[in-house]
Amino acid sequence: MENFTFHSPTKIIFGKGTEHLVGAETKEHASKILLHYGGGSIKRSGLYDRVVKSLEAAEVDFVELGGVQPNPRLSLVHEGIQLCRDENVQFILAVGGGSVIDSSKAIALGVPYKGDVWDFFEGKAEPQASLPIGVVLTIPAAGSEASNSCVITKEEGWLKRGYSSQRNRPVFAIMNPELTFTLPPNQTANGAADIMAHVMERYFTNTPDVSFTDRLCEATLKTIIQHVPIALAEPANYAARAEIMWASTIAHNDLLSTGRVGDWASHWIEHELSAIYDVPHGAGLAVVFPAWMKYVYQHDLNRFAQFAVGVWNVEQDFFDPEKTILEGIRRMEEFFQSIGLPIRLDELGIPDDRLEEMAEKCKKGPDGTLGNFVKLTTKDVLNILKLAK
Ligand code: NZQ
Ligand code: ZN
């Protein structure tokens, strides 16, 4: 296990009816805020009215900006920054999912910065200040409600890039599983794939002696595998929705990263699919992850066999570990399909005429590779995309 500092200070307020606390909670940080939301689901569900009522009761003054799209865009971030400056906003309240939260995080970084907020995403500058943000979460998926990352798409060139910083962690996240009853089945499934991907990115590590966090990862994955089919069959099953919601935060608040180095290649590869074809991030991951696994499993047969046995209940074949491993990957694909996810590029509507471009564009480190478990070159990324066909 490696040395680590774990500091994930987001205050989690979890359970039925908790959105009514948003006004009082926000008031502890500011009395003038931006209320930021997406394409209208919060208005249809009545959540918007309840949030406004709670803000008004706590005498929190607000301006609002809706219209965040899935795979949130830089142009709306710029609009939000200007609005916050014009209105002297001190705090941003994100009501929605990962896209709304990430748009809020980017606005929060951009308000006090004199240059273009995109500088942070390109590694050209580090923020010296940012506005605090709070969250009312409506979809368990991205884990952005307690994560240090923020992912934005710049329309010019269709670049989807992340920026990670402790500044990005929200000060509070209100999480009422009842708010997820209205999720359409595909969004529940997309969320499941993203949650599982966040765990698997951490699970596939070269760091030795991390059995405690291995077990936490396996438990998180099994929780999703058990409860997502229940939530799909019974959308208003509170118990299942609550298990999924809490697992989604733990999957990405860095508890599962403690003492180990994660991989993250599948995420960077997926971001190219979302950037060019605007596919949901989770659905893209359900396609990329199995292909990545098939490409790299020989790097550590023991770890992949442990994954097959510990997560997918495959009976270990001690004479033929590859058989165990491939059965684990097959069961994962079968699970994704059973909850309605695509597992191949064509099911996502992605043709194979731009695979080279995506492999080339995919974000690499200074040494020209991506991923930590196995360092992938552009050619490797292309091979993985071809395996996903
Ligand atoms: O926009 P509205 O109308 O609200 O509808 C949303 C949206 O269409 C809808 N929705 C959300 N809650 C709902 C609901 N519909 C009915 N009932 C509800 N309760 O669901 C759709 C998807 O929402 P979105 O916020 O895009 O989903 P998600 O949470 O999966 O976020 C995806 C974004 O997060 C990024 C992804 O790349 C993607 O851009 N990620 C952010 C991360 C982070 N900041 O830590 C980590 C992740 O790896 C990920 O990259
Ligand atoms: Zn993700």
Describe it.
With 389 residues, the chain is of the alpha/beta class. The chain folds into two domains: 169 residues, Rossmann fold; 207 residues, Dehydroquinate synthase-like, alpha domain (Up-down Bundle), CATH 1.20.1090.10. 48% of the residues lie in helices and 11% in strands. Helix 7 runs parallel beside helix 11, helix 8 runs antiparallel to helix 9 and helix 12 packs across helix 13. It is globular. The two termini are 37 Å apart.
List its salient traits.
389 residues, binds 5,6-dihydroxy-NADP, globular, 8 strands, single chain, Rossmann fold, 48% helix, 2 domains, alpha/beta, binds zinc ion
CATH architecture of the largest domain: Up-down Bundle
User: What fraction of the residues are assigned to beta strands by DSSP?
Assistant: 5-15%
Taking the alpha carbons of the first and last residues, their distance comes to 37 Å
**Largest beta sheet, briefly?**
6 strands, parallel
Number of domains: 2
> Class of the largest domain, according to the CATH hierarchy?
Mainly Alpha
Bound molecules: 5,6-dihydroxy-NADP, zinc ion
Fourth-level CATH superfamily of the largest domain? Dehydroquinate synthase-like - alpha domain
Rg of Cα set: 20 Å
In what order do the strands lie side by side in the largest sheet? Answer: 1-8-5-4-2-3
Give the topology.
Blueprint: E1 11-14, H1 22-27, E2 32-37, H2 41-45, H3 47-57, E3 61-65, H4 74-87, E4 91-96, H5 98-110, H6 118-121, E5 133-137, E6 149-154, E7 159-164, E8 172-175, H7 185-203, H8 211-233, H9 238-252, H10 265-277, H11 281-296, H12 301-312, H13 321-338, H14 355-361, H15 378-387
Parallel strand pairs: 1-8, 2-3, 2-4, 4-5, 5-8
Antiparallel strand pairs: 6-7
5,6-dihydroxy-NADP is lined by residues 38-42, 70-72, 96-100, 102, 138-139, 141-144, 147, 149-151, 179-180, 182-183, 187, 190-191, 194, 252, 267, 274, 281-282.
